[in-house]
Automatic annotation (TrEMBL), chain A:
Keyword Metal-binding among record annotations: no
Organism: Salix viminalis (Common osier)
Official protein name in the record: Coatomer subunit gamma
Ranges of compositional bias, category Basic and acidic residues: 589-599
Region of interest (Disordered), ranges: 589-614
Alphabetical UniProt keywords: Cytoplasm, Cytoplasmic vesicle, ER-Golgi transport, Golgi apparatus, Membrane, Protein transport, Repeat, Transport
BP GO terms, sorted: endoplasmic reticulum to Golgi vesicle-mediated transport; intra-Golgi vesicle-mediated transport; intracellular protein transport; protein secretion
From TrEMBL, chain B:
Protein name from the UniProt record: Coatomer subunit zeta
Organism: Salix viminalis
Any one biological process term the GO annotation gives: intra-Golgi vesicle-mediated transport
Assigned keywords, A-Z: Cytoplasm, Cytoplasmic vesicle, ER-Golgi transport, Golgi apparatus, Membrane, Protein transport, Transport
Pfam families on file: Clat_adaptor_s
Membrane-spanning residues: none
Assembly mode: Oligomeric complex that consists of at least the alpha, beta, beta', gamma, delta, epsilon and zeta subunits.
Main location: cytoplasm
Protein's job: The coatomer is a cytosolic protein complex that binds to dilysine motifs and reversibly associates with Golgi non-clathrin-coated vesicles, which further mediate biosynthetic protein transport from the ER, via the Golgi up to the trans Golgi network. Coatomer complex is required for budding from Golgi membranes, and is essential for the retrograde Golgi-to-ER transport of dilysine-tagged proteins. The zeta subunit may be involved in regulating the coat assembly and, hence, the rate of biosynthetic protein transport due to its association-dissociation properties with the coatomer complex.
Amino acid sequence: MAQPLVKKDDDRDDEAEYSPFLGIEKGAVLQEARVFNDPQLDPRRCSQVITKLLYLLNQGDSFTKVEATEVFFSVTKLFQSKDLGLRRMVYLIIKELSPSADEVIIVTSSLMKDMNSKTDMYRANAIRVLCRITDGTLLTQIERYLKQAIVDKNPVVASAALVSGIHLLQTNPEIVKRWSNEVQEAVQSRAALVQFHALALLQQIRQNDRLAVSKLVTSLTRGTVRSPLAQCLLIRYTSQVIRESNTQTGDRPFYDFLESCLRHKAEMVIFEAARAITELSGVTSRELTPAITVLQLFLSSSKPVLRFAAVRTLNKVAMTHPMAVTNCNIDMESLISDQNRSIATLAITTLLKTGNESSVDRLMKQITNFMSDIADEFKIVVVEAIRSLCLKFPLKYRSLMNFLSNILREEGGFEYKKAIVDSIVILIRDIPEAKESGLLHLCEFIEDCEFTYLSTQILHFLGIEGPKTTDPSKYIRYIYNRVHLENATVRAAAVSTLAKFGAMVDALKPRIFVLLRRCIFDSDDEVRDRATLYLNTLGGDGEVVETDKDVKIFLFGDLDIPLVNLETSLKNYEPSEESFDIDSVPKEVKSQPLVEKKAPGKKPAGLGAPPAGPPSTVDAYERLLSSIPEFSNFGKLFKSSSPVELTEAETEYAVNVVKHIFDRHVVFQYNCINTIPEQLLENVSVIVDASEAEDFAEVTSKPVRSLPYDTPGQTFVAFEKPDGITAVGKFSNTLRFIVKEVDPSTGEAEEDGVEDEYQLEDLEVVAADYMMKVGVSNFRNAWESMGEDFERVDEYGLGPRESLAEAVSAVINLLGMQPCEGTEAVATNSRSHTCLLSGVFLGNVRVLVRLQFGIEGSRDVAMKLAVRSEDEAVGDAIHDIVSCS
Amino acid sequence: MELCPCVKNILLLDFEGKRVAAKYFCDDWPTNGAKEAFEKAVFNKTQKTNARSEVEVTMLENNIVVYKFVQDLHFFITGGEEENEIILATVLQGFVDAVGLLLRGNVEKREALEYLDLILLCIDEIVDGGIILETDANIIAGKVASHSTVADGLSEQTFSQALATAREHLARSLLK
């Protein structure tokens, strides 16, 4: 009995955890700091007090301005002591206190004395401290000493000066640049780290002079570099020079140097070189091979850092050159069981990228064991990798789908489960054979799903895909179970899904009706309302009849309206005789307010902000325009562009323009800001020269009467254009105004003004201005329901292009349509791509576009453009847009 | 463009994740709250791993963190995600070994607090404003100890002796 008790006492001692700082308190320590003022200094005691102060700062305590100043002043007294250790602590605390400019003066002379001391330690540290706290004016006084220190015999002193130089270059570049001769000399130093620091500083001094950096690299790659750190630095400079030299043909300069570094004795250099080679733009497999070989050796190193470095780099290479990495697959597979989970995850995702069809099954078996003991964040990465693998090898969907459904049943957080569900949904969408099994897996999942969001999403998805399967009835049980067992949100979603089955599958209708009738007695309003609505609209009293097409569209069709806009409109609607008109909801996808996109630090009174409230929503524009009598007969506003800047940033007057498109008119709204406090502008208008826009005729303009400093004002110019024609053209703009001087002290303007003009940039109306970005949720359904009646297909050669992705984004921008289902993203290195676009054309005509791109070896891009729309003429107009440009 | 290898922070935490000493060289974590949150995240992510014989490595918030544990002390160094992790590991190893020399093998929280001045000076000699000053443990410890009032004993020893003492201490603690 006695033994354990003693043991316990021991434990308690440990727990009480003796610490020299136990119960330390700021006030008391500041009191203690008075010993710095003693006439007879006790260096040991002073050191201890400084340590306590540093401890407080280190733990996140902060001193008030007064406290810091007080401590700083008493610390300066300690320069009297000759004690080396104490001096060292004094240096440290001065750096931590970061004194203000007027305080710095007090220690300057002491530090300058130390800078010229015979003791190397004093010199080195005094330089570091002084450079940390100094400002530009003081720097010129000590510049001479710093230049000497750079070439000092003692490496610690030289390094201290060089590193300080690197920091000072940020604040006082013009002074540090004058030291380049000394730095150059230090690069030749025999001391390893001096060379490293000198190299770092020299490159930064010359970084804007490409030729100089190139020369530096040339001379050093032939010479001797002493430390591995300096060698790494040189490799980075070399790759920068290679990047900037841009030689397309022949041997790459300096490649041999990089390759030779692969045989260096230091691991950090080998890795730096290998990584540099893999990151060369357009690297060939011949260039890549030696780098991959050394990385492969690292994979089986006993050091985790080397394995991590190698697998991380190979993971990146696998995205662009999967074939080059396959040689490492065996080594990589053994890393799946690596103790370090970061390494294991990287290994798996790399394998998933490089694996071939035959290795999938084996790989999945290994991953299954691995999944149980990693964190969710790693699991999500793996799930995403598996999804892309499945899309790559659709034939393997069975084992991959099985894997996903297995992990779906295991424990996991929301993000992880969502990643799995998303993956299954994508596989169902893209691999038709996987549909039935995928849907059943999802059905099983909602039987026991704790996340309302996922349940409702899956129910909605079932409603769309389920009725199209061979045996829709087998899903009903799963869905109806939800009506019994879930919360109201899920129950309501389940009711809607049931109704969809009823509407789409006529044979099931009588049975669905029975189920829906039971839902009328639900305890929740929403669930009852939905059930009642569906029972009444689907009609047929539960007979086996076909549901009316209009009813289907009414119940389940796309709204074609962004939900945000609908929400705003509904909130603004006031109950009255007039019922809510859904056509009045704007269809424009709301763009980000301009102000948010602007670089931080710029004045918040951005140009995009008209005086009254939040900017750039369609509502706001519509209200603004309809309040101006001149524009009242233009009809309904079709679309407003996002603001286009017509002036450079930081000019006297800041002007941007918003293009408002009507059926027969175009209105330019110029948002102007006067940024000169000493000026008042009056009668501000924009003179528009439309000689390069033949189809447009100016009808009216509306100037701003007065534009004081920093207050936004709008002037308008309206043009008439032929109805239904997508007229395009270029407009040149001149700001005309009367300028009056303002007395800055009183703020009053002088009586007389001078007429003046200010040239703005040109403005273009392009075809995309007549197109509104409106997405569809399911492109294929929309495409099929649109029908082939007004389909227009043609092929175009786009000529040589930078890349496939560049061509795709150029066409999307040209048409100004909304890319659907993420098809605007082009996989790197793919040779072909299909892009789906949706939009609404002038006159409220829906348009869908399917673009197929192909790229040839010579970078020639060909494109097949298929348009479906509700109006034949619009299809032709789309083709005109493409063929004209 | 910044090409010079850069250290974002050096952390020394205890076995519960409490800060013993920490030095930040960049503005990624502007407040003490942000710093503590990062330290907590780092500690939680690494505490179950075994980083006693070799330097380990992981990714956190788009940073690379290398770490090593000795007794009840956890050493960390953070760099950007583009940084060469082997360089960071070298710096960390230098830090761990230098602390071992300065504490004469007794690398544990109690000693580290007792000689906190040496630890802080040690960090000051390894990195200056994010730039690596020195990675050789003997040189770092030498620079710190040569002018220390506290570690009188050290200056009488040569550093190879000190290293031998450190090894002995380590061996003893392993045999316990």
